[in-house]
Amino acid sequence: MNDWSSLESSILLCRLCPRLVAWREEVARVKRRAYRDEDYWGKPVPGFGDPAARVLIVGLAPGAHGANRTGRMFTGDSSGDFLYAALHRAGFASQPASRGRDDGLTLTDAYISAACRCAPPDNKPAPDELAACRAFLDAEIALLCDIRVVVALGRIAFDAILRSYARMTCAVTPGFSHNAVISLGPGLPTLVTSYHPSRQNTQTGRLTTEMFDDVWSGVKGLLQ
Which of 23, 52, 133, 146 is deepest in the core (most CB within 10 A)? Predict the structure, then answer.
């Protein structure tokens, strides 16, 4: 997986986790009523963004009726609405909304990935499923030669990032908290953390627009 085309092919063909394969395909077959006339993606979802990015954004997993439907990370659900609006305000996204793979959205200086590439039941991938997906994140990190900041959206993404960088650093990292700025060690990117922009967080006020904008303001500051 030493080039983007090979990596995407490997992701799309992956069937390592029987539970996730069964779930993503069942969701794509049964569909949500609001999307009953759409063709669901129903496969693992590759990363998306600028291959020359200095910012790597890592989320949890495709949403069952979001990325598992549209085939693009954080696209077609409320989490994506919240994320791309913030990225647009910060200058990383060309538009504030993401509806489908062909909507014209582009990212500048940012690349979006996930700890798990298939939609998991109840948004909870199992430890062995996360371990099976780790090689894809490792490959993206290797291909993104200019990364200066890695943004973890939620605790699971935070843990996945630390595992990917564990072989490169001896730095002791603190536990997960919102809007922390963590050094992974000399020559390595800075890790920035945020609560995940899930509906559970954004509709309860645990993650507000102002809090999220502060994260991206800090990321821009680290790039200067």
Answer: 133
